[in-house]
From TrEMBL:
Record SUPFAM superfamilies: GntR ligand-binding domain-like (SSF48008), Winged helix' DNA-binding domain (SSF46785)
Listed Pfam families: FCD, GntR
Keyword Transcription: yes
Matching SMART domains: FCD, HTH_GNTR
Organism of this sequence: Paraburkholderia bryophila
PROSITE patterns cross-referenced by the UniProt entry: HTH_GNTR (PS50949)
Keywords: DNA-binding, Transcription, Transcription regulation
Positions of the HTH gntR-type domain: 12-79
Protein name: GntR family transcriptional regulator
Length: 235
């Protein structure tokens, strides 16, 4: 059941506020995979009309966070193990290419900015909050893609990152994983911005995503309701 939240009438449009609140509750695990999203309950929880709720659910469906099932209605999306593996297989190849392109195409200024970003990561990522980790990791990808100079790759990776938002949140919560991820980021930045070695950069990026994919399956399955299995449930 969605947590009741007062939606302000004078700020962003109601739909945007409801989308943001529902997205946060899904990503934080307050709304579990497979949980039904009843319009009447959501209207009561947020104090808005059915029209606003329906528009918000359509937006979240386009982000793959909500799935509409015939005769059941909207639910929080449930992924199979194969779904997650497929997403990370694509992500692994894309990020490997992104690392390689940065090593080859980035300007000296962009390489310097990447090295400076690593210094900030030692505090904002390694010792930071979930929010600061999310923010600086987003900065890392923005710079990586900007330096690579391939707009099609950037657009495609943004879509993939939208699909894996829930998994990124898992990684930012677990302190042990954060420490491992920090070591991986050090290797990536050394390869792309210091050594400017395309092959080393691709390998470092691919290894980072490979480990992240394994964590995603483990953490997602752990958060599923007891009567569901990530290996068996059909999205």
């Amino acid at each position: 059941m969605a947590r009741s939240v007062i939606v302000e009438r004078h700020a962003a449009p109601l739909r945007q506020q409801v989308v943001r609140l529902l997205r946060e509750q899904i990503l934080d695990g307050e709304l579990a995979p497979g949980e039904r999203l009843l319009e009447s309950a959501l209207c009561n929880a947020f104090g808005v009309s059915r029209t606003v709720i329906r528009e918000a659910l359509r937006q979240l469906e386009s982000e793959h966070l909500v799935t509409v099932i015939a005769s059941i209605g909207p639910i929080v999306t449930v992924l199979t193990q194969r779904d997650i593996e497929s997403i990370y297989q694509v992500r692994q190849n894309l990020e490997g290419l992104a690392g390689m392109l940065f090593a080859v195409n980035a300007t000296d200024k962009q390489a310097k900015e990447m090295i400076e970003l690593l210094a900030r990561m030692e505090t904002e990522f390694l010792k930071g909050s979930v929010e600061s980790r999310d923010n600086i990791k987003s900065e890392f990808y923005e710079l990586l893609l900007e330096g690579g100079g391939n707009k099609v790759l950037a657009e495609t990776m943004n879509v993939i990152h939208g699909r894996i938002a829930i998994f990124r949140r898992y990684a930012f919560i677990d302190e042990a994983r954060v420490a491992i991820s920090m070591n991986e980021l050090r290797r990536i930045i050394d390869a792309v911005a210091v050594k400017r070695d395309a092959d080393l950069a691709r390998n470092a990026c691919e290894e980072h995503v490979n480990l992240a994919g394994k964590l995603a399956i483990q953490e997602y399955e752990r958060r599923l309701p007891q009567n569901a299995s990530v290996a068996e449930t059909v999205a």
